[in-house]
């Protein structure tokens, strides 16, 4: 048993099947007779002596019979032979043979090596009993398997001989199913080397090998024999890579064994990696797991995505497999995709909480920013809990509430993960819960919004969720309509149930009661809102190189983004999602093109690409100003992702129209791709005010005075839901020579509506985003409302202090709609009514007489006096409803009086019968609030040509 024991020790200590450290000890040109003898031993289960009388060898002479194997790195030939009870060891370099007459059950071992000639004179050690048992499988079969593995490892010639002598693969198969562990180990090696040799044809037994290898791995995993698991899976992986039949066999009968093996070895990276790669191969070769199998695997795949011990390769395979599952089963796979999103949000929140606690202990921490982060984390944590409940409830709706077994509830493993454990216990208690597609979609919407808020300004968080596969989820949410399909299925089921109930009622003569599942009562899921926020998160991530690589490689996605930006996709009529789609393409393709240009380009061409953040909205993204994108990917309409390397400036960047005189090699291409008519000489940037928005603040109004009750910010929100968005519909027609942007930032009237950053932080953040987008590299006019005017003034002040001269120099005009240059009565009121209002940080800075506001106004005044910029101001004249109490009593006030709306320089326009909310919402093209602004823009354009 010594040989078998040694082999077990050796093979048990191999770290990985892919890193076998020992060198093959047998020659590269083995004698076929030796190989045949080893194969025979394995097939027969031992050596069966058939000794001719008179001690004759195979050639009729007197001699020995057995297996002769040459050992490398020496001159020894190890001979195992037997004649009439005599076992002899033969040294090929000796002039004579030492023969030891064995006692009954005797053993003789003698190995001579030229490096140690003294051993030739050492008498043999006699150990009774071992070689007499050579005919049994305890020694002969392990030895033969070892020899076969070494030969297979040594050379292609040896592998060819093995394949030729074992055409039906039965010898290898016998080794794979042998009871000895070392035989299985070496048999797996033989199978692996034969299968990896692309010059050898596959034999008919590969499918059987594959099943046996998987069974070996599974059985070994139960006893934590990791070395055997690894070597078996390494051969198994090669088998399914090469053999379509093997893949079908595994997909049909082997998924459970793979799954159980993965469960038994969660801490072993190499095992998990082999299983992940194998399953990925199965899913990517046109085979499909059943829905039930997919659900069972989700409890393994999601930990592969999020577990820290798992390698990047395992994670990537798991994400790819999950993507195929979502593609195959659409609405039925929603619990899996929702669960994926839930774990992702929970993981990110855990990291953010730890970072926040660490940051709080650091000196100089921005307390206001910390407050905002804490507020976002608290809100996101609540949403994560709601999302976890929605996942469990949706799973219960689809699969029932019997979670006792995997067969009855295939998602039980996934829902045994955090954060689903608590909701799953409640599911078992509450048998009468109700959930539908609309509820599930709403939870997903909140989850995407929360994830975006948490990661919007955190690049490490963005990178983390990208690694966790958020791109797969976003692609699914944008390009597919799983929730709409689920709602359609629910409506169909409800109508069928109602028909059945009516049939029963009519046959029994009873009237049917109202059906709570009536299809007419089913709510429509907010899929349009989900797409919008998914597109927003995609824009946030589109500045990451690895995200850009993913999108550029996906022709379907690129085409969808381009068509969505032009409003050609059903459900993409929303102005925000169109802007997000175009901004994502610009971010991605500009960088893609810049990375592919030749090294001899001029410095002008190597300038950083503009990055459009999600808070910068592109108005009318289908306009000619952005058409140079088509030159970057000329076949984008056909789904091609090829790029034109000769038009690096033509990606909607701020300096698209500039071409250096000495760049003769590309000047022709530039002029052809981006004609002068398409290059807008001016940027117009709209900046909203209190609780406004990039679109709702600038819509038309039917009445110049607000009659709706409620908080002023609520009025603006409601007013923005109706009417024409005049910067997008009127301005491009009346003033086509400009790129139009609209900014979004957070600022609330009171902390009842959520936290917000102070003026300085808001302005600083927007300044960075604008400069990154290239806004300020060409002449720009800012059109502002209320607080937006102060934000722009603060940006200019900060840009001057930080020596960002281009931004200040290129700002040639400011338009202020009801801007509180010297403070607002609305900001004064909360400080006098502290029991009613709790002012947000930004609002506190707007109090009348604020020294900060005076300093900012003096700075802008100096720029105006120097002729660097022109100023146009509008003033409201009517009071605005602020709060409505019980009984219809309303508190109204003039938010920005004329003495605060006029900065003391520039042109002032007083808007008759107009309140604060509607000062930036013209009634028609002849309304002074529009006409004066249009005239001002024409004046700025004429100034450029002077």
From TrEMBL:
Organism placement in taxonomy: Eukaryota, Viridiplantae, Streptophyta, Embryophyta, Tracheophyta
InterPro entries: AB_hydrolase_fold (IPR029058), ARM-type_fold (IPR016024)
Listed Low complexity bias regions: 652-671
Region (Disordered): 503-524, 638-673
UniProt-recorded name of the protein: Uncharacterized protein isoform X3
Cleavable signal peptide: none
Protein's gene: LOC113714912
Transmembrane annotation, as ranges: none
Residue ranges, compositional bias (Polar residues): 513-522
Organism: Coffea arabica (Arabian coffee)
């Amino acid at each position: 048993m010594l040989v078998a024991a040694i082999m077990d020790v050796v093979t048990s200590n191999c770290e990985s099947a892919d890193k076998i450290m020992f060198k093959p000890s047998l020659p590269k040109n083995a004698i076929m007779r030796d190989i045949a003898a080893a194969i025979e031993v394995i097939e027969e289960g031992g050596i069966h002596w058939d000794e001719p009388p008179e001690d004759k060898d195979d050639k009729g002479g007197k001699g020995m019979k057995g297996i002769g194997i040459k050992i490398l790195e020496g001159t020894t030939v190890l001979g195992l032979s037997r004649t009439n009870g005599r076992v002899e060891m033969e040294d090929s370099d000796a002039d004579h043979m030492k023969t030891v007459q064995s006692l009954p059950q005797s053993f003789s071992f003698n190995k001579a090596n030229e490096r140690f000639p003294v051993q030739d004179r050492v008498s043999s050690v006699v150990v009774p009993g071992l070689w007499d048992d050579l005919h049994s499988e305890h020694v002969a079969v392990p030895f033969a398997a070892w020899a076969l593995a070494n030969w297979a490892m040594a050379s292609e010639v040896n592998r060819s001989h093995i394949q030729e002598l074992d055409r039906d693969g039965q010898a290898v198969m016998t080794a794979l199913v042998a009871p000895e562990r070392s035989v299985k180990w070496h048999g797996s090696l033989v199978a692996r080397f034969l299968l990896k040799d692309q010059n050898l044809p596959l034999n008919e037994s590969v499918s059987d090998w594959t099943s046996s290898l998987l069974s070996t791995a599974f059985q070994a995993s139960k006893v934590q024999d990791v070395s055997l698991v690894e070597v078996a899976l390494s051969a198994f992986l090669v088998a399914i890579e090469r053999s379509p039949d093997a893949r079908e066999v595994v997909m049909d009968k082997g998924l459970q064994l793979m799954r159980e093996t993965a469960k038994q070895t969660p801490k072993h990276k190499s095992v998990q990696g082999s299983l992940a790669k194998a399953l990925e191969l199965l899913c990517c070769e046109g085979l499909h797991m059943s829905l039930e199998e997919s659900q069972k695997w989700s409890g393994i795949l999601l930990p592969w995505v999020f577990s820290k011990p798992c390698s990047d390769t395992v994670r990537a395979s798991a994400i790819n497999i999950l993507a195929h599952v979502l593609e195959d089963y659409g609405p039925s796979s929603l619990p899996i995709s929702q669960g994926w999103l839930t774990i992702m949000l929970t993981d990110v929140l855990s990291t953010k909480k730890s970072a926040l606690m660490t940051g709080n202990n650091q000196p100089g921490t921005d307390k206001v920013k910390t407050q905002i982060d804490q507020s976002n984390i608290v809100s996101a944590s609540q949403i994560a809990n709601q999302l976890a409940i929605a996942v469990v409830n949706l799973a219960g709706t689809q699969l029932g509430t019997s979670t006792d077994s995997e067969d009855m509830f295939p998602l039980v493993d996934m829902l045994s993960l955090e954060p689903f454990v608590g909701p799953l216990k409640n599911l078992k208690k509450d048998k009468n819960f109700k959930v539908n597609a609309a509820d599930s979609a709403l939870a997903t919407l909140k989850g995407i919004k929360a994830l975006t808020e948490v990661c919007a300004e955190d690049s490490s968080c963005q990178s983390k969720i990208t690694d966790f596969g958020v791109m797969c989820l976003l692609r699914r949410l944008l390009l597919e309509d799983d929730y709409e399909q689920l709602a359609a299925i629910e409506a169909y089921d409800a109508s069928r149930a109602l028909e059945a109930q009516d049939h029963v009622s009519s046959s029994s003569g009873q009237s049917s009661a109202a059906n709570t599942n009536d299809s007419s009562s089913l709510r429509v899921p907010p899929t349009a809102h989900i797409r919008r926020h998914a597109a927003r998160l995609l824009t946030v991530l589109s500045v990451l190189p690895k995200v850009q690589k993913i999108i550029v490689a996906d022709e379907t996605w690129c085409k969808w983004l381009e068509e969505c930006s032009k409003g050609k996709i059903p459900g993409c009529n929303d102005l925000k999602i169109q802007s997000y789609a175009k901004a994502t393409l610009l971010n991605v393709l500009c960088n893609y093109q810049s990375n592919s240009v030749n090294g001899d380009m001029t410095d002008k061409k190597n300038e950083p690409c503009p990055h459009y953040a999600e808070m910068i909205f592109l108005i009318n993204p289908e306009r000619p100003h952005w058409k140079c994108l088509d030159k970057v990917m000329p076949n984008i309409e056909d789904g091609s992702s090829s790029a034109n390397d000769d038009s690096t400036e033509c990606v909607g960047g701020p300096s698209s129209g500039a071409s250096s005189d000495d760049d003769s090699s590309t000047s022709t291409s530039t002029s052809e791709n981006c004609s002068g008519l398409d290059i807008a000489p001016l940027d117009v940037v709209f900046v909203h005010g209190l609780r406004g928005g990039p679109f709702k603040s600038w819509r038309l109004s039917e009445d110049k005075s607000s009659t709706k009750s409620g908080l002023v910010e609520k009025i603006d929100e409601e007013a923005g839901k109706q009417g024409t968005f005049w910067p997008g519909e009127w301005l491009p027609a009346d003033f086509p020579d400009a790129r139009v942007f609209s900014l979004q930032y957070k600022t609330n009237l009171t902390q009842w509506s959520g936290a917000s950053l102070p003026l300085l932080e808001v302005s600083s953040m927007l300044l960075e985003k604008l400069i990154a987008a290239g806004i300020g590299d060409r002449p720009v006019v800012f059109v502002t409302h209320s607080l937006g005017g102060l934000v722009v003034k603060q940006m200019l002040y900060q840009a001057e202090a930080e020596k960002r001269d281009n931004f200040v120099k290129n700002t040639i005009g400011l338009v202020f709609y009801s801007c509180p240059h010297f403070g607002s009565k609305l900001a004064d009121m909360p400080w006098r009514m502290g029991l009613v209002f709790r002012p947000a940080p930004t609002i506190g800075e707007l109090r009348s007489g604020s020294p900060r506001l005076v300093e900012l106004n003096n700075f802008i005044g100096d720029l105006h006096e120097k002729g660097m910029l022109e100023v146009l101001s509008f003033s409201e004249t009517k009071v605005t409803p602020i709060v409505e109490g019980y009984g219809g009593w309303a508190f109204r006030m003039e938010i920005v009086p004329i003495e605060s709306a006029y900065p003391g320089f520039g042109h002032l326009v007083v808007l008759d019968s107009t309140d604060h909310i509607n000062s930036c919402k013209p009634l028609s093209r002849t309304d002074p609030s529009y006409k004066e602004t249009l005239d001002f823009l024409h004046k700025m354009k004429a100034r450029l040509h002077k």
